[in-house]
Structure formats: C-alpha cells, structure tokens
Amino acid sequence: MAMSFLKPHCTHRLPSSSSSILNSPFPTISPTKSLFANGSSFSTRIPIHFRARPISSTQTKPFSFKAFSSQISASAPKHEMPARVGFLGLGIMGSPMAQNLIKAGYKSSPKEVAASCDVTFAMLADPQSALDVACGEDGAAKGLSPGKGYVDVSTVDGATSKLIGTRIKATGALFLEAPVSGSKKPAEDGQLIFLTAGDRSLFETVAPLLDIMGKSRFFLGDVGNGAAMKLVVNMIMGSMMASFSEGLLLSERVGLDPKVLVEVVSQGAISAPMFSMKGPSMVQSLYPTAFPLKHQQKDLRLALGLAESVSQPTPIAAAANELYKVAKSRGLSDEDFSAVIEALKVKLQSQSKE
Known about the structure:
The chain has about 350 residues and is of the alpha/beta class. The chain contains 12 helices and 11 strands. Strands 3, 4, 5, 6, 7, 8, 9, 10 and 11 form a 9-stranded mixed sheet that branches. A two-stranded antiparallel sheet has the order 1-2. Helix 6 (about 200-215) links the parallel strand 10 (about 190-200) and strand 11. The radius of gyration is 21 Å and the shape is elongated. The termini are far apart.
C-alpha cells in the first residue's frame, strides 16, 4: 500500500520549503505550488445516521506540520462515507489516527489536501497552529468550497474554534470541531473519544471515519462546546496527575513502597488506567512521552481562561498549572505530562536545604 507525506515548515504565510514523499506512485507536488501536498478519496453522497449510543488578527509564529491524504483502494469495502479524505498534522496523535484509516483500506496520493479532498481532518498542537493551517494566506480555507468538510480535532479554546468555523463556513464548506480524549496509545489502537460540535450533517457523514479512529463519539451541539468539553476533561486529568504525583512522593517519604501504592490505587474506587499505566515508570523516574507536558500545561492554561470567562473559581487546577510551569522551566516540556512529579521533587529538595 503506497503512502506519502509532505513535511513543509510553515509560518503564518506558509512559505515553500523542503518536502519528502515516500513510496508514492504519483508525481511529487512542489511545496511552492501546494501548501499541503496530498489528497484522498472516498464517498459522501448518502449520510450515515447518528447512533443513539454515546459515540460518544493572529501573531506570526513558526511551526511545522505534516500532511496525509488517502484514496480508498479498489479492494476495500465500499462504505457510505466521503470518497476523499485529507489529514493535516501527523504528529504524536495525528499519525496513528491516519494510520488507522490506512489500515481500513485507504492509501495516499500527494495532492493539495483541502482542494482535492471531500473532507479534511486537522490535528495541530495549539490554537495558533490550528488557526494558521486553517486560515493562513495559503491555508485550508483557500482550498475549500461548497460540498466539502473540515474537521478540526486539535485542542484549542472555544474562541479559536469559533473563528476557524466562521472562516471555513464562509467558503460554503461545513465545519466540525472534534477534539479527542486520549493520548498516543489510544490513538494507535483506534480507542479515542471524539467530542464534536458544529454541523450535524458533517458529523453524520464522517461518523464511520470517527469509528475507525475511536471507540466513541459525542455530538455536543454548537461550535465551542467540543472545545469546552475537552478543556474540562484535560483540566481534570492534569489535576489528577499532580495529586497522584504528590501521593507517590508522600508514600516514599513515610517509608512506604510507591510500587505497592500503585497496586493499591489500581484496585480501589479511585482506580484509573492513567495511574496503572504511568505509575510504574514514574516510580523509576521515567516519562516516555504519550502526552507532552507542554500540551498539558497549555490545556490547563486554556481551561483556566475558560473558567475565568464564567467567573468559576478553579483553585486546584490553578495550583496544578503552577506545577506544570515549574516542570517546563526544568526542561521537561517534551517529556510525558507525568514528569510533573519532578516539579514536586524540586520543591522537596528546596525544603531539605532550608
């Protein structure tokens, strides 16, 4: 199965840059001519019915992303879904999500994503990147037109999502925000949770694709609700990890075995997969990256802004955010967010010296 990638490095104006294409039977598209090389194909004519179960002004800032596109193979089963699908942002989350579409029978070709695809997915690291890729001078909006759809699975604030949605809908295309709950392993296993909002018809059209990449999908109404739900979820997660870190260090401080604490927690009412998966490596001061600490701190910052906008006090999340900021200052931005425990170790060391 052929597969191709373009890795242009972009700013707000998204200038040309070097690119690479792997195992593609198609001619290379110069990044000076196309922003996101790669297109794709599937079929959108008959909508998929919604299932009742929980299916479940910008500053110039350099960033980079990868683009993928796929076309259904002749041997793949025909589903009532878009014929051409593009994927912008093949990082720690986007890449395994796109791989699951490939496993389902799709292969890529190097075409400009938004212009050549019926539906384009975007998974970017932060609000600025998401806005630039969607709305920049050579952004996806320039390639969209009536009948096409844009699905943004990035984690951004509601204001950014609404701005992107407004720009996309101005082209006549449909827009769906669909941030995901889950990190690297769930993305690889197709076990993500999609928190969608926006155009219901687009939600129904891409439902089979969401089911390939996730275990559940929720439609939450108007644009902004998906972003808000994701920020609330990640606020809780970040606070939980900070508290768990405190518990591990306290158990060791009073002479208990933190490994045993992980086992006890995993069998009680507060059991959570996050603790069972990350606890053993945290005890060894190892933090293999599934969800970068810098992204967790970014989400806490956005969640605190959301809370401020409705005058909701969030003292626990605010305290956790300060710990993540300390961890970032210690050079741990690209480590897993469980490395926040190192910020607490710093505080303990400071107390010991006093």
